[in-house]
Automatic annotation (TrEMBL):
It comes from the Eukaryota. Residues 63-86 are annotated as: Disordered. One of its GO terms (biological process) is alpha-amino acid metabolic process. This is PLP-dependent transferase. Residues 134-449 form the Aminotransferase class I/classII large domain. It holds the Pfam family Aminotran_1_2. Keywords: Aminotransferase, Pyridoxal phosphate, Transferase.
Length: 475
Protein backbone atom coordinates (compact mmCIF):
# COMPACT_ATOMS: atom_id res chain seq x y z
CA UNK A 1 0.00 0.00 0.00
CA UNK A 2 1.16 3.58 -0.66
CA UNK A 3 2.42 5.60 2.27
CA UNK A 4 0.91 8.94 3.10
CA UNK A 5 2.93 10.68 5.75
CA UNK A 6 2.10 13.08 8.55
CA UNK A 7 2.89 16.70 7.59
CA UNK A 8 6.05 18.37 8.96
CA UNK A 9 3.82 20.74 10.96
CA UNK A 10 2.66 17.77 13.07
CA UNK A 11 6.13 17.45 14.62
CA UNK A 12 6.50 21.13 15.51
CA UNK A 13 4.45 20.60 18.66
CA UNK A 14 6.12 17.37 19.78
CA UNK A 15 9.75 18.49 19.57
CA UNK A 16 11.30 19.30 22.94
CA UNK A 17 12.06 22.81 24.16
CA UNK A 18 15.78 22.16 23.75
CA UNK A 19 15.34 20.92 20.16
CA UNK A 20 13.22 23.93 19.27
CA UNK A 21 15.59 26.44 20.82
CA UNK A 22 18.86 24.88 19.61
CA UNK A 23 21.07 27.15 17.54
CA UNK A 24 22.56 25.42 14.53
CA UNK A 25 26.32 25.05 14.20
CA UNK A 26 26.78 27.68 11.47
CA UNK A 27 29.41 25.66 9.59
CA UNK A 28 27.39 22.44 9.62
CA UNK A 29 24.32 24.31 8.37
CA UNK A 30 25.95 25.12 5.04
CA UNK A 31 28.40 22.22 4.86
CA UNK A 32 26.48 20.42 2.11
CA UNK A 33 26.84 23.45 -0.22
CA UNK A 34 30.44 22.40 -0.81
CA UNK A 35 29.03 19.66 -3.03
CA UNK A 36 27.34 22.15 -5.39
CA UNK A 37 28.91 21.73 -8.84
CA UNK A 38 31.37 24.51 -9.74
CA UNK A 39 31.68 25.91 -6.21
CA UNK A 40 35.18 26.66 -4.88
CA UNK A 41 34.91 26.26 -1.12
CA UNK A 42 36.82 28.34 1.40
CA UNK A 43 34.37 27.16 4.05
CA UNK A 44 35.27 24.39 6.46
CA UNK A 45 38.45 24.21 8.49
CA UNK A 46 39.36 20.89 6.94
CA UNK A 47 42.86 19.54 7.42
CA UNK A 48 44.88 18.65 4.34
CA UNK A 49 44.80 14.84 4.26
CA UNK A 50 48.11 14.63 2.37
CA UNK A 51 49.71 15.53 5.70
CA UNK A 52 48.17 12.49 7.40
CA UNK A 53 50.48 9.48 7.77
CA UNK A 54 48.11 6.94 6.14
CA UNK A 55 48.69 6.19 2.46
CA UNK A 56 46.24 3.29 2.23
CA UNK A 57 44.05 1.24 4.53
CA UNK A 58 43.70 -2.46 3.78
CA UNK A 59 41.49 -5.05 5.37
CA UNK A 60 40.44 -8.59 4.57
CA UNK A 61 37.01 -10.14 4.95
CA UNK A 62 36.05 -13.75 5.42
CA UNK A 63 33.50 -15.45 3.13
CA UNK A 64 29.83 -14.78 3.82
CA UNK A 65 28.67 -18.30 2.99
CA UNK A 66 27.34 -20.05 6.04
CA UNK A 67 29.74 -22.73 7.28
CA UNK A 68 28.34 -25.60 9.26
CA UNK A 69 28.29 -23.67 12.53
CA UNK A 70 26.20 -26.12 14.57
CA UNK A 71 28.61 -28.92 13.71
CA UNK A 72 31.71 -26.77 14.26
CA UNK A 73 30.34 -25.49 17.57
CA UNK A 74 29.49 -29.00 18.76
CA UNK A 75 32.88 -30.40 17.83
CA UNK A 76 34.84 -27.37 19.05
CA UNK A 77 36.36 -26.58 15.61
CA UNK A 78 37.36 -23.00 14.85
CA UNK A 79 34.63 -21.11 12.96
CA UNK A 80 37.07 -19.37 10.67
CA UNK A 81 40.19 -21.03 9.37
CA UNK A 82 43.37 -19.79 7.71
CA UNK A 83 42.52 -21.69 4.54
CA UNK A 84 39.25 -19.77 3.95
CA UNK A 85 39.14 -17.74 0.74
CA UNK A 86 39.41 -14.11 1.96
CA UNK A 87 38.67 -10.92 0.04
CA UNK A 88 41.14 -8.09 0.33
CA UNK A 89 39.71 -4.56 0.31
CA UNK A 90 41.86 -1.45 0.07
CA UNK A 91 40.91 2.18 0.62
CA UNK A 92 43.01 4.48 -1.56
CA UNK A 93 42.55 7.74 -3.52
CA UNK A 94 39.12 9.35 -3.11
CA UNK A 95 37.94 6.54 -0.79
CA UNK A 96 40.88 7.12 1.52
CA UNK A 97 40.42 10.89 1.36
CA UNK A 98 36.79 10.45 2.49
CA UNK A 99 37.77 7.99 5.22
CA UNK A 100 40.23 10.45 6.75
CA UNK A 101 38.29 13.69 6.31
CA UNK A 102 35.37 15.40 8.06
CA UNK A 103 32.04 14.41 6.55
CA UNK A 104 28.33 15.24 6.46
CA UNK A 105 26.56 15.33 9.83
CA UNK A 106 23.96 12.73 8.82
CA UNK A 107 26.52 10.34 7.32
CA UNK A 108 28.28 9.92 4.00
CA UNK A 109 26.07 10.06 0.92
CA UNK A 110 27.47 6.72 -0.24
CA UNK A 111 26.68 4.96 3.03
CA UNK A 112 23.22 6.52 3.16
CA UNK A 113 22.57 5.23 -0.37
CA UNK A 114 23.39 1.76 0.86
CA UNK A 115 21.21 2.13 3.92
CA UNK A 116 18.32 3.32 1.75
CA UNK A 117 18.75 0.14 -0.26
CA UNK A 118 18.68 -1.92 2.95
CA UNK A 119 15.56 -0.24 4.36
CA UNK A 120 13.79 -0.86 1.04
CA UNK A 121 14.99 -4.47 0.93
CA UNK A 122 14.28 -5.34 4.57
CA UNK A 123 11.29 -3.12 5.40
CA UNK A 124 9.78 -2.10 2.06
CA UNK A 125 10.33 1.59 2.83
CA UNK A 126 11.22 3.88 -0.07
CA UNK A 127 12.52 7.40 -0.35
CA UNK A 128 9.96 10.17 -0.62
CA UNK A 129 7.71 8.93 2.19
CA UNK A 130 8.53 11.77 4.58
CA UNK A 131 11.41 10.02 6.29
CA UNK A 132 15.19 9.95 6.12
CA UNK A 133 18.15 8.54 8.02
CA UNK A 134 21.12 9.67 10.11
CA UNK A 135 24.16 7.61 10.99
CA UNK A 136 25.36 7.83 14.59
CA UNK A 137 28.08 6.63 16.93
CA UNK A 138 26.20 3.36 17.42
CA UNK A 139 22.43 3.29 17.82
CA UNK A 140 22.83 4.39 21.45
CA UNK A 141 23.98 7.81 20.20
CA UNK A 142 20.86 8.09 18.06
CA UNK A 143 18.59 6.90 20.89
CA UNK A 144 19.95 9.60 23.17
CA UNK A 145 19.69 12.34 20.57
CA UNK A 146 16.17 11.24 19.60
CA UNK A 147 15.13 11.25 23.27
CA UNK A 148 16.59 14.74 23.62
CA UNK A 149 14.81 15.87 20.47
CA UNK A 150 11.40 14.88 21.84
CA UNK A 151 11.40 14.93 25.62
CA UNK A 152 11.14 17.76 28.10
CA UNK A 153 11.82 17.12 31.80
CA UNK A 154 8.68 15.68 33.35
CA UNK A 155 7.36 14.14 30.09
CA UNK A 156 5.97 10.61 30.22
CA UNK A 157 7.52 7.67 28.37
CA UNK A 158 5.86 4.28 28.00
CA UNK A 159 8.51 1.62 28.32
CA UNK A 160 8.51 -2.11 27.77
CA UNK A 161 9.37 -3.67 31.14
CA UNK A 162 11.80 -5.27 31.71
CA UNK A 163 13.95 -3.52 29.15
CA UNK A 164 17.44 -2.56 27.98
CA UNK A 165 19.23 -1.04 30.99
CA UNK A 166 21.08 1.46 28.77
CA UNK A 167 17.88 3.35 27.96
CA UNK A 168 16.53 3.34 31.50
CA UNK A 169 19.60 5.36 32.53
CA UNK A 170 19.23 7.51 29.41
CA UNK A 171 15.56 8.38 30.00
CA UNK A 172 16.40 9.05 33.66
CA UNK A 173 19.07 11.52 32.60
CA UNK A 174 16.43 13.33 30.53
CA UNK A 175 14.37 13.57 33.72
CA UNK A 176 11.24 12.02 32.28
CA UNK A 177 8.71 9.77 33.99
CA UNK A 178 8.78 6.13 32.96
CA UNK A 179 5.55 4.16 32.78
CA UNK A 180 6.15 0.38 32.73
CA UNK A 181 4.23 -1.73 30.25
CA UNK A 182 4.67 -5.44 31.03
CA UNK A 183 5.77 -8.11 28.54
CA UNK A 184 4.65 -11.64 28.03
CA UNK A 185 6.02 -14.23 25.61
CA UNK A 186 4.44 -12.40 22.60
CA UNK A 187 6.04 -9.04 23.41
CA UNK A 188 4.71 -5.97 25.16
CA UNK A 189 1.17 -6.60 26.40
CA UNK A 190 -0.88 -4.35 24.15
CA UNK A 191 -3.98 -4.88 26.33
CA UNK A 192 -2.08 -3.37 29.27
CA UNK A 193 -0.88 -0.56 27.05
CA UNK A 194 -4.49 0.11 26.06
CA UNK A 195 -5.61 0.11 29.70
CA UNK A 196 -2.86 2.50 30.71
CA UNK A 197 -3.73 4.90 27.91
CA UNK A 198 -7.49 4.74 28.23
CA UNK A 199 -7.33 5.48 31.96
CA UNK A 200 -4.67 8.19 31.58
CA UNK A 201 -5.43 11.07 34.01
CA UNK A 202 -6.89 14.05 32.16
CA UNK A 203 -4.61 16.50 33.99
CA UNK A 204 -1.38 14.83 32.81
CA UNK A 205 0.30 15.29 29.44
CA UNK A 206 -0.05 12.06 27.47
CA UNK A 207 3.09 9.98 26.81
CA UNK A 208 5.03 11.01 23.71
CA UNK A 209 7.01 7.81 23.27
CA UNK A 210 6.66 4.07 23.58
CA UNK A 211 10.10 2.41 23.77
CA UNK A 212 10.64 -1.27 22.95
CA UNK A 213 13.15 -3.83 21.62
CA UNK A 214 11.08 -6.01 19.27
CA UNK A 215 13.52 -8.79 18.33
CA UNK A 216 15.39 -10.91 20.89
CA UNK A 217 14.81 -8.21 23.47
CA UNK A 218 17.67 -7.27 25.73
CA UNK A 219 17.26 -8.68 28.41
CA UNK A 220 14.24 -10.98 27.95
CA UNK A 221 15.06 -12.56 24.58
CA UNK A 222 11.38 -12.07 23.59
CA UNK A 223 10.46 -11.42 19.95
CA UNK A 224 7.28 -9.37 19.53
CA UNK A 225 4.66 -10.98 17.29
CA UNK A 226 3.18 -9.27 14.23
CA UNK A 227 -0.24 -9.18 15.89
CA UNK A 228 1.12 -7.29 18.91
CA UNK A 229 2.90 -4.84 16.65
CA UNK A 230 -0.31 -4.17 14.73
CA UNK A 231 -2.18 -3.51 17.98
CA UNK A 232 0.56 -1.16 19.19
CA UNK A 233 0.53 0.76 15.89
CA UNK A 234 -3.26 1.17 16.22
CA UNK A 235 -2.73 2.51 19.74
CA UNK A 236 -0.02 4.93 18.57
CA UNK A 237 -2.54 6.38 16.11
CA UNK A 238 -5.37 6.53 18.67
CA UNK A 239 -3.25 8.04 21.43
CA UNK A 240 -0.72 9.91 19.34
CA UNK A 241 2.69 8.67 20.41
CA UNK A 242 5.94 7.82 18.62
CA UNK A 243 7.11 4.20 18.66
CA UNK A 244 10.85 3.94 19.40
CA UNK A 245 11.68 0.69 17.60
CA UNK A 246 15.12 -0.12 19.02
CA UNK A 247 16.08 -3.11 16.90
CA UNK A 248 19.76 -4.13 17.11
CA UNK A 249 18.83 -7.85 17.09
CA UNK A 250 16.61 -7.79 13.97
CA UNK A 251 19.25 -9.60 11.92
CA UNK A 252 19.90 -12.09 14.72
CA UNK A 253 16.48 -13.70 14.30
CA UNK A 254 16.73 -17.50 14.14
CA UNK A 255 13.17 -18.69 14.85
CA UNK A 256 11.53 -21.43 12.76
CA UNK A 257 8.67 -19.20 11.57
CA UNK A 258 9.37 -16.44 9.03
CA UNK A 259 10.76 -13.27 10.64
CA UNK A 260 7.86 -10.98 11.64
CA UNK A 261 7.77 -7.58 9.91
CA UNK A 262 9.12 -4.51 11.69
CA UNK A 263 6.98 -1.66 13.02
CA UNK A 264 8.62 0.46 10.31
CA UNK A 265 7.33 -1.89 7.62
CA UNK A 266 3.92 -2.47 9.20
CA UNK A 267 2.96 1.18 9.65
CA UNK A 268 3.18 1.58 5.88
CA UNK A 269 1.07 -1.50 5.18
CA UNK A 270 -1.69 -0.57 7.65
CA UNK A 271 -4.28 1.95 6.45
CA UNK A 272 -5.71 4.27 9.11
CA UNK A 273 -9.37 3.90 10.05
CA UNK A 274 -10.23 7.48 9.08
CA UNK A 275 -8.04 7.80 5.98
CA UNK A 276 -5.56 10.14 7.73
CA UNK A 277 -1.80 9.71 7.02
CA UNK A 278 -0.56 6.24 7.93
CA UNK A 279 3.19 6.77 8.33
CA UNK A 280 5.28 8.96 10.60
CA UNK A 281 4.87 7.46 14.08
CA UNK A 282 7.82 5.04 14.00
CA UNK A 283 11.39 5.99 14.77
CA UNK A 284 13.52 2.97 13.94
CA UNK A 285 17.00 2.40 15.41
CA UNK A 286 19.35 0.00 13.63
CA UNK A 287 22.83 -1.08 14.60
CA UNK A 288 25.74 -2.84 12.95
CA UNK A 289 27.19 -3.64 16.38
CA UNK A 290 25.92 -7.21 16.48
CA UNK A 291 26.32 -7.93 12.78
CA UNK A 292 29.53 -6.32 11.53
CA UNK A 293 31.49 -4.72 14.35
CA UNK A 294 30.63 -3.23 17.72
CA UNK A 295 33.89 -1.28 17.83
CA UNK A 296 33.22 0.60 14.58
CA UNK A 297 30.35 2.28 16.49
CA UNK A 298 27.95 2.32 13.56
CA UNK A 299 24.20 2.64 14.08
CA UNK A 300 21.51 4.66 12.40
CA UNK A 301 18.04 6.03 12.88
CA UNK A 302 15.26 6.13 10.28
CA UNK A 303 12.18 8.27 10.74
CA UNK A 304 10.24 11.46 10.15
CA UNK A 305 12.39 14.21 8.60
CA UNK A 306 11.64 16.92 11.24
CA UNK A 307 12.78 14.62 14.07
CA UNK A 308 15.88 13.66 12.07
CA UNK A 309 16.64 17.35 11.49
CA UNK A 310 16.53 17.93 15.26
CA UNK A 311 18.86 14.94 15.80
CA UNK A 312 21.35 16.34 13.26
CA UNK A 313 21.25 19.75 14.94
CA UNK A 314 22.26 17.98 18.16
CA UNK A 315 25.09 16.08 16.40
CA UNK A 316 26.22 19.36 14.85
CA UNK A 317 27.16 20.64 18.29
CA UNK A 318 28.27 17.34 19.90
CA UNK A 319 29.81 14.44 17.94
CA UNK A 320 29.71 16.49 14.65
CA UNK A 321 29.37 13.18 12.79
CA UNK A 322 30.22 9.52 13.24
CA UNK A 323 33.59 8.09 12.17
CA UNK A 324 34.34 8.66 8.47
CA UNK A 325 36.73 5.72 8.57
CA UNK A 326 34.07 3.31 9.86
CA UNK A 327 31.63 4.60 7.24
CA UNK A 328 34.16 4.21 4.42
CA UNK A 329 34.97 0.66 5.54
CA UNK A 330 31.27 -0.23 5.55
CA UNK A 331 30.74 1.22 2.07
CA UNK A 332 33.71 -0.73 0.71
CA UNK A 333 32.49 -3.91 2.42
CA UNK A 334 28.94 -3.52 1.06
CA UNK A 335 30.20 -2.74 -2.43
CA UNK A 336 32.18 -5.96 -2.36
CA UNK A 337 29.24 -7.97 -0.96
CA UNK A 338 26.23 -6.55 -2.77
CA UNK A 339 22.79 -7.18 -1.25
CA UNK A 340 23.16 -10.93 -1.82
CA UNK A 341 26.40 -10.95 0.16
CA UNK A 342 24.72 -8.96 2.93
CA UNK A 343 21.87 -11.49 3.09
CA UNK A 344 24.32 -14.39 3.10
CA UNK A 345 26.19 -12.79 6.02
CA UNK A 346 22.92 -12.30 7.94
CA UNK A 347 22.04 -15.97 7.39
CA UNK A 348 25.46 -16.99 8.57
CA UNK A 349 25.29 -14.84 11.72
CA UNK A 350 21.78 -15.93 12.65
CA UNK A 351 22.70 -19.60 12.10
CA UNK A 352 25.65 -19.09 14.44
CA UNK A 353 23.51 -17.56 17.21
CA UNK A 354 20.89 -20.25 16.81
CA UNK A 355 23.56 -22.88 17.39
CA UNK A 356 24.91 -20.97 20.41
CA UNK A 357 21.38 -20.69 21.80
CA UNK A 358 20.80 -24.43 21.39
CA UNK A 359 23.98 -25.20 23.31
CA UNK A 360 22.90 -22.85 26.11
CA UNK A 361 19.36 -24.25 26.18
CA UNK A 362 20.67 -27.81 26.52
CA UNK A 363 22.98 -26.77 29.37
CA UNK A 364 20.13 -24.92 31.12
CA UNK A 365 18.06 -28.08 31.00
CA UNK A 366 20.92 -30.18 32.30
CA UNK A 367 21.89 -27.91 35.20
CA UNK A 368 18.97 -25.68 36.16
CA UNK A 369 15.92 -27.89 35.67
CA UNK A 370 13.78 -27.48 38.81
CA UNK A 371 15.87 -24.51 39.98
CA UNK A 372 14.83 -21.97 37.35
CA UNK A 373 12.21 -21.32 34.64
CA UNK A 374 12.75 -19.90 31.17
CA UNK A 375 11.59 -19.63 27.56
CA UNK A 376 14.07 -20.34 24.79
CA UNK A 377 14.65 -17.16 22.74
CA UNK A 378 14.24 -16.97 18.95
CA UNK A 379 16.56 -14.04 18.37
CA UNK A 380 19.39 -12.09 19.92
CA UNK A 381 21.96 -13.28 22.39
CA UNK A 382 20.27 -13.42 25.78
CA UNK A 383 18.67 -16.00 28.03
CA UNK A 384 16.35 -14.55 30.67
CA UNK A 385 15.53 -16.96 33.45
CA UNK A 386 13.63 -16.88 36.70
CA UNK A 387 15.40 -18.33 39.70
CA UNK A 388 13.02 -20.30 41.90
CA UNK A 389 14.14 -18.53 45.06
CA UNK A 390 12.36 -18.32 48.39
CA UNK A 391 10.77 -14.92 49.05
CA UNK A 392 12.77 -12.40 51.10
CA UNK A 393 11.59 -10.84 54.39
CA UNK A 394 9.34 -8.44 52.40
CA UNK A 395 7.66 -11.37 50.66
CA UNK A 396 9.39 -10.71 47.31
CA UNK A 397 12.14 -12.78 45.77
CA UNK A 398 15.12 -11.10 44.14
CA UNK A 399 18.14 -12.49 42.34
CA UNK A 400 20.56 -9.66 43.22
CA UNK A 401 22.22 -11.07 46.31
CA UNK A 402 22.55 -14.57 44.93
CA UNK A 403 23.97 -13.42 41.59
CA UNK A 404 26.10 -10.48 42.72
CA UNK A 405 27.54 -12.13 45.77
CA UNK A 406 27.20 -15.87 46.04
CA UNK A 407 27.39 -16.84 42.35
CA UNK A 408 30.22 -14.40 41.72
CA UNK A 409 32.16 -15.83 44.66
CA UNK A 410 31.62 -19.22 43.14
CA UNK A 411 33.17 -18.00 39.86
CA UNK A 412 30.18 -17.19 37.64
CA UNK A 413 29.14 -13.74 36.50
CA UNK A 414 25.67 -12.80 35.18
CA UNK A 415 23.34 -9.81 35.55
CA UNK A 416 20.55 -9.74 38.16
CA UNK A 417 17.25 -8.71 36.58
CA UNK A 418 16.71 -5.67 38.81
CA UNK A 419 18.92 -3.51 36.54
CA UNK A 420 16.43 -4.00 33.70
CA UNK A 421 13.35 -2.97 35.67
CA UNK A 422 12.51 0.66 34.85
CA UNK A 423 10.95 1.14 38.31
CA UNK A 424 13.83 -0.69 40.06
CA UNK A 425 11.42 -3.34 41.31
CA UNK A 426 12.87 -6.57 42.77
CA UNK A 427 12.86 -9.56 40.46
CA UNK A 428 14.03 -13.17 40.64
CA UNK A 429 15.11 -13.01 36.96
CA UNK A 430 18.68 -13.13 35.65
CA UNK A 431 20.15 -12.25 32.25
CA UNK A 432 22.83 -14.46 30.73
CA UNK A 433 24.54 -13.81 27.39
CA UNK A 434 25.14 -16.88 25.22
CA UNK A 435 27.09 -15.13 22.46
CA UNK A 436 30.67 -15.85 23.48
CA UNK A 437 31.21 -18.99 25.53
CA UNK A 438 31.97 -22.39 24.12
CA UNK A 439 30.05 -25.45 25.24
CA UNK A 440 32.42 -26.47 28.03
CA UNK A 441 32.44 -22.95 29.55
CA UNK A 442 28.63 -22.75 29.30
CA UNK A 443 28.36 -26.07 31.13
CA UNK A 444 30.87 -25.08 33.78
CA UNK A 445 29.17 -21.68 34.33
CA UNK A 446 25.74 -23.26 34.73
CA UNK A 447 27.13 -26.07 36.89
CA UNK A 448 28.55 -23.41 39.23
CA UNK A 449 25.24 -21.59 39.25
CA UNK A 450 23.45 -24.83 40.11
CA UNK A 451 25.92 -25.45 42.93
CA UNK A 452 25.34 -21.92 44.24
CA UNK A 453 21.55 -22.33 44.09
CA UNK A 454 21.64 -25.67 45.88
CA UNK A 455 23.93 -24.29 48.57
CA UNK A 456 21.59 -21.32 48.96
CA UNK A 457 18.62 -23.64 49.41
CA UNK A 458 20.54 -25.58 52.01
CA UNK A 459 21.45 -22.37 53.86
CA UNK A 460 17.86 -21.18 53.78
CA UNK A 461 16.58 -24.46 55.11
CA UNK A 462 18.90 -23.97 58.13
CA UNK A 463 17.95 -20.28 58.37
CA UNK A 464 21.60 -19.22 58.04
CA UNK A 465 23.29 -17.05 55.50
CA UNK A 466 26.37 -18.57 53.86
CA UNK A 467 28.06 -15.21 53.43
CA UNK A 468 28.32 -12.63 56.22
CA UNK A 469 26.34 -9.48 55.46
CA UNK A 470 29.50 -7.33 55.54
CA UNK A 471 30.89 -9.24 52.56
CA UNK A 472 27.82 -8.82 50.33
CA UNK A 473 27.54 -6.72 47.16
CA UNK A 474 30.98 -7.33 45.76
CA UNK A 475 30.20 -5.35 42.55
C1 LIG B 1 18.55 -2.98 22.97
C2 LIG B 1 19.80 -2.26 22.67
N1 LIG B 1 19.73 -1.04 22.14
C3 LIG B 1 20.83 -0.34 21.83
C4 LIG B 1 22.08 -0.85 22.06
C5 LIG B 1 23.27 -0.03 21.70
O1 LIG B 1 23.87 -0.52 20.53
P1 LIG B 1 25.01 0.24 19.75
O2 LIG B 1 26.25 -0.57 19.92
O3 LIG B 1 24.54 0.29 18.31
O4 LIG B 1 25.15 1.62 20.32
C6 LIG B 1 22.21 -2.12 22.63
C7 LIG B 1 23.53 -2.68 22.93
O5 LIG B 1 23.72 -3.70 23.52
C8 LIG B 1 21.04 -2.84 22.93
O6 LIG B 1 21.07 -4.08 23.45
Amino acid sequence: MAASHLPDSYYASILSESARSRRANPIRKVYHLENEPGVISLLAGKPNTTMFPFTSIKFTVSPTTSPDYPERIRTGQPLKSEGDQRTEIELTGQDLEEALQYGQTEGSARLLDWLHGLQEHLHGRSRGEGWRMSVGVGSQDMLYKAGTALLNPGDYVLIQAPTYAGVIAMFDSLKCNLVDVPNDSSGTRSSDLRNILSSWPADRPKPKIFYNVPFGCNPTGITTTEQRKREIIELSREHDFIIFEDDPYFNLYFGDAPRPPSFFQLEKSMPTKDGSPNVGRVLRFDSFSKLISAGMRMGWVSGPTPILNAIDMHSGISSVHSSSLSQAMLVALFNSWGLDGFDAHVRSVSTFYRAKCEVFAAAMKQHLDGLAEWDVPEAGMFFWFKLLLPPGPDGESDSSDLIQTKAFKNGVLALPGIGFMPDGRKTPYVRAAFSLLDESDVNEALRRLRETLLKDREDHSGETSAIPVAERKIW
